[in-house]
Design goal:
This protein is α+β, with helices and mostly antiparallel strands. The protein folds into 3 domains: 183 residues, Penicillin-binding protein 2a (Domain 2), CATH 3.90.1310; 341 residues, Beta-lactamase (3-Layer(aba) Sandwich), CATH 3.40.710; 112 residues, Trypsin Inhibitor V, Chain A, CATH 3.30.10. It is 33% helix and 23% strand. It has 22 helices and 31 strands. Strands 2, 3, 4, 5, 10, 19 and 20 form a 7-stranded mixed beta sheet that branches. It has a 6-stranded antiparallel beta sheet with strand order 13-12-11-24-23-22, sandwiched between helices. Strands 25-27-28-26 form a 4-stranded mixed beta sheet, covered by helices on one side. Helix 3 packs across helix 4, helix 10 runs antiparallel to helix 20 and helix 12 packs across helix 18. The longest helix has 34 residues. The radius of gyration is 38 Å and the shape is elongated.
Length: 699
C-alpha cells in the first residue's frame, strides 16, 4: 500500500510540476506579448534584411550643340558605424578631437565641441548608422575621406557614404519650364514626357533594417547593377535661347508686364529652337514658372486676321486688290461698336491695305458680308485648317484651342465679326505660330517638336522625323497672296519699325484687349504680340512673341513684342552662315556718275546708250534680256537669263517688261504699286504653272 501511495504521490508531483511549467510558459508568452512586445518587435525588425532598389543615374538632356540642359549630380549622405569592432576606444579617444574640428571647419554648422559630444554619445550608444550630414557634394566627400578616423574606411573607421542623384540645370532658368521636372505625383516638361526613357532601370542591393527604420547596406557591391537612363537630344539652340530669354526679360521689365513668351521654330522641320516663358515675381524679378507658349490658350486678337483672310480668299469672296469701305475706322454691329486703332483717317481702301493696317472694321466687314448668311462656311474652313485641334505635343499641358460654332449656345449676332479679328476664339501662342509656319512652308502644317533623338551609351536609338499635320491648309494661290500681304505689313504697314536692310521679315502685329470675367471695359489690359517669319523670300524660321498686361501706356504689338522678334531674328541671321547670302546690289538705289537703265530687253538698252553716247560693255551680244550696272566710266550690260517653264526673276524690271515675261510664262500677274519691281511672291527658278497667280510689288 505504501508503495502504491508513493507512486501516486510521484505522479501528482510530476503532474503539478508540469502544470506549473505550462503556467510559466503561458505567463512568459503573455509577458512577451503584452509587456515586452514592442521591445522584441523592434529587435526583430532591426534584424530584417531585404533587397532594396538602387536608383539608376538619370539620363542627360542636351541642346542641339551638345550643351547640358539637365543632368544628374551626385549628392551623398554621410553615416558612421560607431560600433565597428576594429575601432578601439584608445584610437577613438586619441583622434576624436581632431575629427570634430575637421567636421566643424568643413560644414560650419556646429562647433567642434558639439561634434565631439554627439560623436561620443553615438559611440556609447553603439550606433551602427549614425547620421553625420545629408546633401554632401563630391568635393566635400573627398575631404571627408581624409579626416581622422574616417580615413580608415568603412571596415576599420566606420565611414559610410550613400550616393543619390540630384537633378540640376546648368543653365539655370534657360528653358527651365520646358525642360521641366519629374517628381512623385507631378511632372512637367520634357522630364515628365520622357520620364521612362530618362529614368533607366534601378538596381538591387541587400540591406538590413536597423534601429530608427534606417536601411544599412550589407556590402559595398550591388547584387544587381542599375541601368542608366537614356539621353535626350533636344531641338533647343542654347545661344538663341539665351538671346530670346534676355530680350524677353528686358521688354517685360521696360513695360512692367505680367508675363510673356517667345518661340522660334524652324519652318520645314517644326524644330523649336528657342522657347522662353517669364512671369513677374513678388520682388518684381522674372522667372520661368509657367509654360505660356504651350499652355495658355487666349484670344489672340489681330494675329488671327490671317486665318480670316485665308477663308475669304480661298472661298473666292475677295481678292487683295478689291476695296472695302472701313467707314473711318468705326463700325456698329447691333449694340456693340468696333473701332480701329486709328479712326477718322481712311474710308475706301484695298483689302491688302486693310490687312497691312490691321483694320478691325475692314476685315470684320468683309467676313460679316460674305459669311453672315452661312457662318458655318467659315467655321468649317477654319476647322479644316486644323485650328480647332491641339497640336499633339510630346509634353503635357497644351492649351485647348477653340473655334466657335453657330450651333453653340453662346453664338450671337456679333460672334462672326468679332471672331474674324481674333476674339471669341482661343489659341495658344504655339498654335498661332504653327498657322504662320504653314504659310511660310507653302501651306504644309507640321507638328512642332522639341526632341530630335534619344541616345543610349552615345548611340542614337530613336529619331523623331518631321510629322505633317495638314498637307495643304489652303491653295498655293492663296498662300502666295497672303505671303505678299505679310511682307507688306512690315514694309509699309503696322510693323514698319521692324523693317531690316539686310533681310526681309514678313508677319503680323496683334493687340488684343484681355477679358476680365467676360468684361472688356473693366480694368483695361492688353496682350501685345507679333508673329512672322524670315527671311521673307526664303523662309527658314518662324517666330512669335506675346506680352501680357504691359502696364505702361504703350501696348501695341509692333512696339512691345516687335523689338523682341527683331532681336531674335537679327541674332539668328547674323550667326547662321547659310542665311548670309551675297547681297545683290540694286543699281536703281545707287548713285553713279553716269546713268543706267532698268533690267530690260538688251537691244532697248543698247539703243538707249547709243542715243545718249554712253560707252557700254556688252558681255553677251546674243542675249535677249539684260541687266545694266555702271561704274564711273562704263556701263556693263550682262545677260538676265530667262529659262522656259521656270518663273523668271523680274525684280529690277519695269512693269511692262515684267508683265510681258510673266504672262509669256503663262502666269496671272497681280501688280501692286508702280515704278520698278521690288518684290515677287514666287521665287525665281520655281516651275511656272499655267494660270498660277504671282504678285509683284512695285515702287
Amino acid at each position: 500500500m505504501n508503495h502504491e501511495k508513493e507512486i501516486k504521490n510521484r505522479v501528482y508531483l510530476s503532474y503539478g510540476l508540469m502544470c506549473l511549467f505550462a503556467l510559466g510558459i503561458v505567463a512568459r508568452v503573455a509577458q512577451i506579448q503584452f509587456i515586452e512586445g514592442e521591445k522584441w518587435k523592434g529587435k526583430a525588425e532591426s534584424q530584417t534584411t531585404a533587397f532594396r532598389t538602387i536608383e539608376a543615374t538619370r539620363g542627360n538632356i542636351f541642346s542641339t550643340d551638345g550643351s547640358l540642359l539637365a543632368t544628374s549630380e551626385p549628392i551623398y549622405e554621410i553615416r558612421w558605424d560607431a560600433n565597428i569592432p576594429a575601432l578601439t576606444d584608445e584610437y577613438f579617444n586619441e583622434h576624436i578631437d581632431k575629427l570634430s574640428h575637421q567636421l566643424s571647419g568643413l560644414f560650419r554648422d556646429k562647433s567642434a565641441q558639439t561634434y565631439k559630444r554627439e560623436l561620443t554619445k553615438a559611440r556609447l550608444n553603439k550606433s551602427q548608422y549614425y547620421l553625420i550630414k545629408r546633401k554632401v557634394g563630391h568635393k566635400e566627400l573627398k575631404a571627408l575621406r581624409s579626416f581622422e578616423i574616417f580615413k580608415l574606411g568603412k571596415h576599420k573607421g566606420g565611414f559610410i557614404h550613400n550616393q543619390r542623384n540630384k537633378r540640376a540645370k546648368p543653365f539655370k532658368q534657360l528653358a527651365a519650364r520646358t525642360i521641366g521636372y519629374d517628381r512623385p505625383g507631378y511632372s512637367v516638361g520634357l522630364e515628365g514626357a520622357y520620364s521612362e526613357e530618362l529614368a533607366g532601370i534601378g538596381g538591387q542591393r541587400l540591406m538590413r533594417k536597423i534601429a530608427g527604420g534606417n536601411w544599412k547596406p550589407l556590402s559595398d557591391e550591388n547584387e544587381i547593377e542599375p541601368e542608366d537612363g537614356s539621353d535626350l537630344i533636344t531641338t533647343i539652340d542654347i545661344n538663341i535661347q539665351d538671346v530670346a530669354e534676355n530680350a524677353l526679360q528686358l521688354q517685360l521689365e521696360k513695360h512692367r508686364a505680367h508675363h510673356g513668351c517667345a518661340i522660334l521654330m524652324e519652318v520645314q522641320t517644326g524644330e523649336i529652337k528657342a522657347i522662353a516663358n517669364l512671369t513677374v515675381q513678388e520682388n518684381r524679378s522674372y522667372a520661368e514658372t509657367y509654360n505660356y507658349a504651350i499652355g495658355s490658350a487666349t484670344e489672340p486678337g489681330s494675329t488671327f486676321k490671317l486665318a480670316s483672310l485665308i477663308c475669304l480668299l480661298e472661298d473666292g469672296h475677295v481678292d487683295i486688290t478689291d476695296t472695302v469701305d472701313i467707314e473711318g475706322g468705326i463700325k456698329k454691329y447691333y449694340t456693340e461698336t468696333m473701332k480701329d486703332s486709328k479712326t477718322g483717317v481712311y474710308n475706301k481702301i484695298t483689302v491688302a491695305k486693310a490687312f497691312e493696317l490691321s483694320s478691325n472694321v475692314g476685315i470684320s466687314k468683309l467676313v460679316n458680308q460674305y459669311y453672315q448668311k452661312d457662318p458655318e462656311q467659315m467655321t468649317d474652313r477654319l476647322v479644316a485648317m486644323g485650328l480647332n485641334e491641339p497640336l499633339g505635343l510630346e509634353i503635357k499641358g497644351e492649351g485647348k484651342p477653340r473655334i466657335p460654332s453657330p450651333k453653340d449656345k453662346s453664338w450671337s449676332g456679333i460672334s462672326l465679326p468679332w471672331m474674324s479679328i481674333g476674339y471669341e476664339v482661343l489659341q495658344t501662342p504655339l498654335q498661332i505660330l504653327s498657322l504662320y509656319n504653314a504659310v511660310a512652308n507653302d501651306g504644309e502644317m507640321v507638328r512642332p517638336k522639341l526632341v530630335r533623338a534619344i541616345k543610349k551609351h552615345g548611340k542614337i536609338v530613336r529619331e523623331f522625323p518631321t510629322e505633317v499635320l495638314n498637307k495643304q491648309i489652303c491653295s498655293q494661290k492663296t498662300i502666295d497672296k497672303v505671303k505678299a500681304l505679310l511682307e507688306g505689313v512690315v514694309e509699309h504697314g503696322t510693323a514698319s519699325n521692324l523693317k531690316h536692310a539686310n533681310y526681309k521679315i514678313a508677319g503680323k502685329t496683334g493687340t488684343a484687349q484681355i477679358s476680365k470675367d467676360g468684361n472688356y471695359q473693366r480694368d483695361k489690359t492688353y496682350q501685345a504680340s507679333f508673329v512672322g517669319y524670315f527671311p521673307a523670300d526664303k523662309p527658314r524660321y518662324t517666330c512669335i512673341v506675346v506680352i501680357d498686361s504691359p502696364t505702361s501706356s504703350v501696348y501695341y504689338g509692333n512696339l512691345v513684342a516687335g523689338p523682341i522678334f527683331k532681336e531674335i531674328s537679327d541674332k539668328v541671321y547674323s550667326t547662321q552662315v547659310k542665311m548670309l547670302e551675297e547681297v545683290e546690289t540694286d543699281p536703281q538705289l545707287v548713285d553713279h556718275l553716269i546713268p543706267f537703265s532698268k533690267v530690260s530687253e538688251k537691244q532697248d538698252l543698247v539703243n538707249a546708250f547709243e542715243k545718249l553716247e554712253i560707252k557700254a560693255d556688252i558681255k553677251d551680244p546674243d542675249a535677249k534680256w539684260a541687266i545694266a550696272s555702271a561704274d564711273s566710266n562704263l556701263v556693263h550690260v550682262t545677260e538676265r537669263e530667262v529659262i522656259e517653264n521656270l518663273v523668271p526673276r523680274v525684280v529690277g524690271m519695269g512693269a511692262m517688261d515684267a508683265l510681258f515675261l510673266l504672262e509669256n510664262a503663262g502666269m496671272k500677274v497681280n501688280m501692286i504699286g508702280s515704278g520698278v519691281v521690288r518684290q515677287q511672291s514666287i521665287l525665281p527658278g520655281t516651275r511656272a504653272t499655267s494660270g498660277r497667280e504671282i504678285i509683284i510689288r512695285l515702287s
